[in-house]
Structure formats: C-alpha cells, structure tokens
Design brief:
alpha+beta; 2 domains; four-stranded antiparallel beta sheet; about 20% strand; globular
C-alpha cells in the first residue's frame, strides 16, 4: 500500500548511480508485512520517499499493456531489471451515506466528483488488460458517478452517470447485460451488481459499516478456474470522515487491517 507521498530529497543526484535509485531503496526499506497467511498472499505497507511524478508518466504515449507496466516499473524501480505481467481483473464498488455522513471514496487528485470528471476529460485514456473503460467516483457530498468511455463512440466519448453501485459492465448499456454472462463488449459482473443492490435496497434505512461489509461479502467471488474472473483478492471499506481504509484480503472477513491517512498508521 502506498500510504503517503513525500517529495524526493534528491540526495542521489550526482552520485554516479541511477538517478532516483537511492530514494527508491529508502522506500523499499520501509516495507512492512502486515499479515501472515499460510497461503502466502499477504498485505504489506510501504512509505513512498520519492516523487513518483504521475504527470510525467501520464503525458507519455502508452498504447499497450506492456508499455504501461514498463512505465510504472521505470518510475518505481528505475534501472532495475524487473518484469511485470498484468493479470486479468474485475471489481465491485458502491457508495452510500450512513447516519453520520460517511461514504465510500475513490478519488485521487480532485476535491469533488465533478472536479475528478473534469480532470479525466483532460486525459487520453488507455484501458489495460482488456478492462472496461470506467471509474467509480464518490465525494464528500455523496455525489456518486460512474465515468465511462462509450464503446460505441469513435472518439470514446466520456459519459458520467449517477449510480450507487458498479461492477464490470457499462452502466449506459446496463439493459444489454445479463447476469452470469460475458455480454461481449458491454462487460460482465451483473450478478455481483444485483447482489450489492439487493443488500443496499434491503438496508436502505440502516446504512452502516456493517452493511458495507455485508454488500462486499454478497459480491465476493470464490476461486473458480473456469470463470473469467474469480477469487476475490481484497475488499476495502473507505471512511472519508475519519480518513481510514479497512482492508480484508482474500475473503478473510474476520481479519481487518485499518489504515489511517491522517496518522499514516496501520492497525
């Protein structure tokens, strides 16, 4: 987990080694294992001690999955011979406001959902690993939208639609998506979406963190080698009032790791 972003002190410039490498080693030195599961799939934390310069990376011309992987590795581990293969993936997301005003947050460099939409409109996007062109965004005012790049538009028009939940299909073409089907270019995961919606509708007058976990468990995927996506890897409940993220790995629902952004601390 990249728990904090600090500026690169530049202490490794002019030393004759790869520029930026020293601060990467400083970051690597902060890696801490947070869990200890028998299957070896664990959660780690790391403090970033360098400026990872997303603006420079996003300004690059990236036209393939491997180009993206190479660009990310060049940022995180410059000059090191590391190779990364991108896997297939899927996700489920939703947001609601509880009785104290909390909601799930998927925002990075904008203070509001509208600000995030405006930011995304300024980028020429490329989706990796055959993923859908969409982002689920929620802000402090509970403005929840799915941002999609229309698969029937020659220019991949960006369309933002208010939604409560999202999985791996186009909201703008939801009527063309069936549960337990791949549905061609329109995406899949309608069955997970329906299960989330069922929980949120049933508990509409009692939203809480417990309801969030119930919805995530309803959308979980067990390991299935015959399915396009399976075996839920992580589940997160975000609280943007207290600035925390509670993480569960691989459906170990009773084992919750809490990260506090305000304190940069893990419990």
């Amino acid at each position: 987990m990249d728990s904090y972003r600090n500026s690169d002190p530049g202490s490794d410039h002019g030393t004759g080694i790869c520029p930026g490498l020293f601060s990467r080693f400083q970051s690597i030195a902060t890696i801490k294992k947070l869990t200890g599961y028998a299957d070896g799939y664990d959660l780690y934390r790391m403090d970033i001690r360098y400026d990872y310069d997303l603006d420079r990376r996003t300004s690059s011309t990236i036209t393939s999955d491997q180009m993206l992987a190479d660009a990310l590795l060049a940022t995180v581990f410059p000059c090191l011979p590391i190779h990364l293969e991108l896997p297939d993936y899927s996700c489920s997301a939703f947001a609601f406001e509880d009785t104290e005003g909390n909601a799930r947050l998927v925002l990075d460099r904008a203070a509001t959902t509208q600000g995030a939409v405006d930011l995304l409109r300024g980028y020429d996007m490329f989706a990796v690993s055959g993923g859908d062109y969409h982002f689920y965004i929620s802000d402090a005012s509970n403005d929840n939208r799915i941002v999609e790049y229309d698969c029937h538009s020659e220019t991949r028009e960006l369309i933002d639609t208010p939604v409560r939940a999202a999985t791996n299909f186009y909201e703008i073409y939801k009527d063309r998506v069936l549960p337990n089907h791949y549905n061609g270019i329109y995406g899949h995961g309608r069955e997970r979406y329906d299960r989330i919606e069922e929980v949120l509708t049933e508990k509409a007058d009692q939203y809480s963190e417990a309801v969030a976990w119930e919805a995530l468990q309803a959308a979980q995927q067990l390991a299935n080698p015959d399915a396009r996506t399976s075996n839920t890897q992580w589940s997160v409940v975000y609280d943007k009032t207290n600035l925390t993220a509670k993480v569960v790995l691989r459906r170990n629902w009773s084992d919750i790791t809490t990260y506090s952004l305000a304190e940069n601390d893990v419990k």
